Amino acid sequence: MKYDVAHRRIWLKGEILDVNDAMVNVLSPTSQFGLNVFEGIPCYWNEDTKQLYAFRLSDHYDRLIRSAKLIQFDLKYTKDDFKKALVDTVQANEYDENLSVRQTLFVDGFGSWGSDGPVEMFVAPIPRGRTSAEYNKKGLNCCITSWRRISDENLSPRIKCGANYINSRVGQREALRNGYDTCIFLNEAGKVAEGPGSCFFMVKGDTLITPRLTDSVLAQEELGLKVEERTIDRTELYMADEAFLCGSAMEITPIYTIDRYAIGTGEQGEVTKRLHLTYLDCVRGKLAIKTPVLKNKIGRSPLMKISILGNPVTYSIEHLADVSKDIPNMVVQLSFLVMSGIIVLVFAFAKNLKEARIGVMTTLLIEYMFLILGSTVIYRTPGDTYMYKLTPFWSYVAIADGQKELIEENLLNVALGIPFGFLLSFICTKNALLKSFLFGAAFSACIELSQLFFNRGLCEFDDLFHNTLGSVVGYGIGMLMIVGIRKVRGSKILRTT
Asked: Of 227, 257, 283, at which residue does a domain stop?
């Protein structure tokens, strides 16, 4: 059954409980001193697919672990534990609506503000309509608060800790007392920092400007905007064409005024509107958008699907083995049945072993091509925007800049081409190396162009390069195997002679 908010089910210390039955000791360090770290994880309901999507889950958990490390918690839970607890909680409530799921690690039992454990966890779903009022406004009237944002020299803002939000509270309360919706903090140097629990962006011309760039993929690749991360003076705010606050709870909310100065027309700007609509398509699984953080050749969307009715969860961005889950089971089973039948017929009617080998390998190659095209193009959810990135070797520049996770994606793209080249080495007898290169490049180009043409992914040069490289590597592996087989057969013949 679907539970109402007053009796929602939450996860606490490994159990699913009615929220009214969940208890924490009033003398625990988290009750007395705010010793907790947390994440608010946005989950969006897609009515068309009857599916709930958790956005950027792995990133949220990476930050949760960093917060626990910086506050020096003795953490016993893993990322897999976090995921299972969230899924179990959402499924227990059977919510078919947008949620903000609060996942909190806290110091339990008795202890002081210096305690590092025992660390426990609770997970609580919050329907987005029940979140704080400023998070549900169509537009915001802001002020510059007299309170300054805490610095890393005082209490690190990198720790997403309950105690840190006292700084946000005093700024927010000041804004409300003075008739504003929310506030904007300046840092110790008097420069623009952020909102109480959100990041600040402003638009000037065709440039999106932020004091701390977090992830510009929507602006850069979807809307063609320039993005700058730089210091922003207070007076620049009043001259901005558009401005907005954004975050997991805030989403992308336009700012109408700052200190009574109208921002642009004093209404939602066109860039802010386009960004928000694109964001909503992405988080609902309607747009296969590629981010620099969570990427894989198969399953571009930075989402985790959660089945509300208890079906298995699909971690679509994290496990290459899960690619088959995006393809209807009947199609997969039928294709493998047909493939097996063809292989049997080849062996039955082939005049010699060489013909049989070529026939079998050709059948396997066709089947592999079908599976890859199905998972990367045919059965993917189409987006609304043509996406391409043709800059050669951009991923290596990004890796040099610190995005080490792209190393894994590049290796996966190489791995994707290896079976293709391996099978070709057994099929082609003349100019096999050249053919593996040309056929591998052609097949990869077909995938990338199909993704672009049908709006089902990002068309990019780097993927084509790595797929082709994988095909050549696969050819080399196949040739080494063939040479080895020939040597073994040759030695047996010599021994017999």
From this structure: 283
Q: Which residue has the higher pLDDT, 190 or 3?
A: 190
Give dist(CA 130, CA 134) in Å, integer.
Answer: 11
Q: Supply 283's token pair.
A: 């988080």
Mean pLDDT, the chain, whole residue set: 79
**Cα diameter, the chain:** 101
Q: How many CB atoms lie within 10 A of CB 8?
A: 20
The per-residue pLDDT for range 86-143, each reduced to its tens digit, is 999 998 998 888 899 999 999 998 888 888 889 999 999 988 765 555 666 789 999 9
263 and 149, same domain (yes or no): yes
Residue 182 is part of which domain span? 135-283
In a domain, 396, yes or no: yes
Instruction: Flag whether pLDDT at 207 surpasses 60.
Output: yes
- What single string gives the DSSP state of each residue in 354-420? HHHHHHHHHHHHHHHHHHHHIIIIITSPP-SS-EEE--TTHHHHHHHTT-THHHHHHHHHHHHHHHH
What is the SS3 assignment for 55?
strand
pLDDT confidence of residue 326: 42
Is residue 9 within 8 A of residue 16, CB to CB? The reply is yes
Among 96, 129, 162, give the residue marking a domain's end.
Answer: 129
pLDDT for the residue 310: 37
On whether residue 292 sits in a domain, the answer given is no
Q: In terms of domains, do 106 and 164 share one?
A: no
Q: Select from 361, 379, 312, 397 the least CA-distant residue to 84.
A: 312
Percent of the chain with pLDDT over 70: 76
Q: Are 108 and 162 found together in one domain?
A: no
Distance, CA of 155 to CA of 172 (rounded, Å): 19
Q: Find all residues with CB under 8 Å of 310, minimum gap 6, and list them.
A: 91
